[in-house]
């Protein structure tokens, strides 16, 4: 397949790199400093079991996606509609657009601006951009994909490339499970600038995370969401599988960039208010992250 990545950051580059290693043609759409590195040196994928530089093509112009069979849509949640509109004219009618984003409603929002089939994906991977054109993989790397036209073709390609992938009829429940995990970790990691393993060693942190999770569960129930798996087990598993990972929110704040907190704890707060549910702990961490963001401006 030809695979395009819209928003070639750490997550998109990891999965694109795995597909490129398996022989697929990969093009990356990203920021100028990374595009230059991709085109001159290739994509360096530093995984836990290998460290390779893979030839790819890259551009800041979404037109490079023309002819793609699959798009990995990896922009920040606030940029979903804008990026989708930029991409729309360059895609064939049957191109599958797979949203590898934080939050629960990005696929729905993307469908309002593009006619191509859109499939939501739940991503569990610990990665970071360690330098221009250089993605470092810290752990995991699974995908759960929503059924759509060509979903099976995409899943087969990922599996053949060494990416554990499944297609699920309850992606909404899986997205909400991921949202709850993000709400438990992301803001606290961002506020403290600590990786998950160090974070949970703090006095009272596990109790605070417990309150965050309980509030999120209450909102999920009010929304009629059937969560996949055991939430508490899934939250604990992150400590075991990603102890060295800083949350994406922490990485954004460290770089002085806007975060996706409005689509994480902020989303929980808004949905809770709609149902008349109190979420004081989610509101507190949300407010603190927004304050830190305002200082960076």
Word description of this protein:
- The protein has 297 residues and is α/β, with parallel strands linked by helices.
- 46% of the residues lie in helices and 20% in strands.
- It is built from 12 helices and 10 strands.
- Strands 1, 2, 3, 4, 5, 6, 7, 8, 9 and 10 form a 10-stranded mixed sheet that branches.
- Helix 5 (151-160) links the parallel strand 9 (134-145) and strand 10 (165-167).
- The N and C termini lie far apart (41 Å).
Q: How would you summarize what this structure contains?
A:
The chain is an alpha/beta fold and 297 residues long. It has twelve helices and ten strands.
Secondary structure blueprint with pairings:
Layout (H helix, E strand, L loop, with lengths): L1 E5 L3 H12 L3 E5 L2 H10 L1 E4 L4 E4 L2 E3 L10 E4 L6 H9 L7 E4 L6 H6 L6 E14 L2 E12 L5 H10 L4 E3 L3 H22 L3 H4 L5 H18 L8 H11 L6 H7 L10 H11 L4 H17 L1
Parallel strand pairs: 1-2, 1-6, 2-5, 3-9, 6-7, 7-8, 9-10
Antiparallel strand pairs: 3-4, 8-9
Helix pairs in contact: 6-8, 6-9, 6-10, 6-12, 8-11, 11-12
| Structural class by helix and strand composition | alpha/beta
Over the alpha carbons, how many angstroms does the gyration radius reach? 18 Å
**Mean of residue pLDDT?**
96
Strand/helix succession:
EHEHEEEEHEHEEHEHHHHHHH
Separation of termini?
Answer: 41 Å
The total of helices stands at: 12
Low-confidence stretches: none
Choose one word for the global shape: globular
Oligomer: single chain
**What is the percentage of strand-forming residues?**
15-25%
Topology, number of strands: 10
């Amino acid at each position: 397949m030809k695979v395009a990545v819209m928003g070639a950051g750490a997550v998109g580059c990891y999965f694109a790199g795995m597909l490129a290693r398996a022989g697929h043609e990969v093009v990356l759409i990203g920021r100028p400093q990374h595009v230059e590195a991709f085109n001159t040196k290739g994509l360096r994928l530093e995984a836990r079991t290998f460290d390779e530089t893979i030839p790819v093509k890259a551009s800041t112009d979404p037109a490079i996606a023309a002819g793609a069979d699959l798009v990995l849509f990896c922009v920040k949640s606030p940029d979903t509609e804008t990026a989708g509109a930029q991409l729309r004219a360059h895609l064939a009618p049957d191109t599958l657009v797979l949203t590898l984003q934080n939050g629960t409603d990005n696929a729905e929002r993307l469908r309002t601006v593009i006619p191509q089939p859109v499939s939501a994906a739940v991503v569990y991977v610990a990665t970071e951009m360690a330098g221009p054109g250089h993605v470092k993989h810290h752990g995991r790397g699974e995908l759960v994909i929503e059924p759509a036209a060509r979903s099976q073709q995409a899943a087969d390609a990922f599996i053949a490339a060494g990416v554990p992938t499944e297609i699920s009829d309850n992606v909404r429940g899986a997205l909400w499970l991921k949202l709850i995990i993000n709400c438990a970790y992301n803001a606290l990691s961002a506020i403290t600038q600590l990786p998950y393993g160090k974070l949970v060693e703090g006095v009272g942190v596990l109790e605070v995370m417990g309150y965050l999770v309980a509030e999120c569960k209450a909102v999920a129930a009010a929304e009629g969401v059937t969560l996949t798996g055991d939430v508490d087990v899934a939250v604990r598993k992150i400590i075991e599988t990603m102890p060295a990972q800083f949350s994406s929110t922490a990485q954004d704040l460290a770089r002085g960039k806007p975060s996706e907190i409005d689509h994480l704890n902020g989303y929980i707060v808004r949905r809770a208010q709609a149902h008349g549910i109190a979420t004081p702990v989610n509101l507190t961490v949300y407010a603190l992250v927004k304050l830190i963001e305002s200082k960076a401006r």
